Amino acid sequence: MNGHYSKCDFFNYKRKDLAKYGNASNLQLNEKIKEMKKRGEKVYHVSFGQSPFPLPEEMVEALKKHAHQLDYLSMYGIIELRQAICNLHRQFPTGIPAEYLNPDNIVVTDGSKMALYLLMALTDSVVVLVAPAWVTYHSQVTLTGKKSIVIQTTYEDGWKLTPHSLAQAVERQAQPYENKLVIFTNPGNPTGQVYTAEELRELAEVFRKYKMIVVSDEIYSYSTYDDTDYVSLSKFYPEGTVITTGLSKWASGGGWRIGYAMFPPELSFLRNLLGSAASHTFTCAAAPQQYAVSEYFNNHEACAEYMKHCTRILHAVSLFCSRKLREAGLKVKDSNASYYMYPDFSNFRDKLAKRSIFTAEEMCAAIFDDTRVSLLAGGVTHSDSAESLTVRLCYVNFDGEAALTASKRIGLETAIENEFVLEYCSATVEAIEELTRWCTKLQES
């Protein structure tokens, strides 16, 4: 063959279980929308969960100061940052026990996504997922080659895991000898829901009974709205909970790739494994960012002001969206935190069927074709049931810089109302108006 081979000669190298493995659907859709916008096309992009706000000015200035940092750093993260993380969580408590807030119990990672993946890869366990789930969880399980157990939640249960459904799934789908690693998200993505203290206390009893390790993804904990009391699962299950979080959401630093995992002393072996895995994969999180973030995290006044302004804007926008969507006939819960809500179109199932639309993917495609509103399908995309007619709606396509500037000008002592949303979050308002018009036309058809 003269040394030349066709691509198919190497196809058998691909793992059989990765035959349908592809890019993260949210990132892939985001790239498509970016290209359409570059061509000047009008698109309402409410399908991607990136903070709309500019980075905190103090964090940007700190990065400028530390841009010269070039050394390989500790596999666990620099001590300055790990101490600053402890200080931050003491200043803004969420019920995390004191034993977690020790630099020796923290590993800084290249984004919390990396921590989540490595924790799955490092444990001898089946992985328990709670659906609807963030699109990446199931793909990470597939990449590790592990078995997964998916527990469906419902609108009626507030899209939350219940002790009964947890115990039932473990009894029916897992072998007694199998270890269980639970990926637990609070606040929820894609639902925006927050568990109450009593709900967490009851779940902790089941986790303890079956000796599960729980990875509690708390990336949105500092994006919880003022009318909601947030508490970490670690308060009720301290011996078996690993916390993952970072600055990508509440501090708008998604592209900075700084995340971290927090461990109790009982799981120090897993902390050591994660540090070792870090040394053999990404080596360390970026040096300039680590120094900059450690400086910012110690500026508690700046952190508090930024959190308060961003969360009150998001809260106002979320209430506008959920109210309008319910008026249009959708089933949707008010969000308690984050950027998301999870509208359910099941009330329109018969009308959709007349248009030969039977899945969330088909529905999102039709909505996009008719309105240029880009939504991310619920259903199987989020490990939900195939017949689900749900979508993840990210109400963050507005001009966050303008909204943040206006909020600061108004001052925290003055509440922001619906008029603020109409004036400073108009792109999201327009998207919701387009979507509700589509629903009205569908209802009348």
Q: In total, how many beta strands?
A: 12
Q: Which structural class do you get from the secondary structure elements? A: alpha/beta
Strand fraction band? Answer: 5-15%
Share of helical residues: 40-55%
How is the main sheet built?
Answer: 7 strands, mixed
How are the strands of the biggest sheet laid out side by side? 2-8-7-6-5-3-4
Can you tell me the overall shape?
globular
Low-confidence stretches: none
Q: Output the number of helix runs.
A: 15
Terminal-residue CA separation: 62 Å
The SSE order reads HEHHEHEHEHEHEEEHHHEHHEEEHHH
What's the alpha carbon Rg, rounded to whole Å?
Answer: 22 Å
Mean pLDDT: 94
Describe the structure.
The protein has 15 helices and twelve strands. The protein is an alpha/beta fold. Strands 2-8-7-6-5-3-4 form a seven-stranded mixed β-sheet, with helices on both faces. Strands 9-12-11 form a three-stranded antiparallel β-sheet. Strands 1-10 form a two-stranded parallel sheet. Helix 5 links the parallel strand 3 and strand 4 (148-152). The longest helix is centred in the C-terminal third of the chain and has 28 residues, at 300-327. It is globular. The mean pLDDT is 94.
Features:
globular
Write the layout of secondary structure elements.
Elements: H1 25-38, E1 44-45, H2 57-66, H3 79-91, E2 106-109, H4 112-122, E3 126-131, H5 135-144, E4 148-152, H6 163-173, E5 180-185, H7 197-209, E6 213-217, E7 241-246, E8 259-262, H8 268-280, H9 287-297, H10 300-327, E9 340-341, H11 349-354, H12 360-371, E10 373-374, E11 376-377, E12 391-394, H13 400-410, H14 418-424, H15 426-444
Parallel strand pairs: 1-10, 3-4, 3-5, 5-6, 6-7
Antiparallel strand pairs: 2-8, 7-8, 9-12, 11-12
Helix pairs in contact: 2-9, 3-9, 4-5, 4-8, 10-15
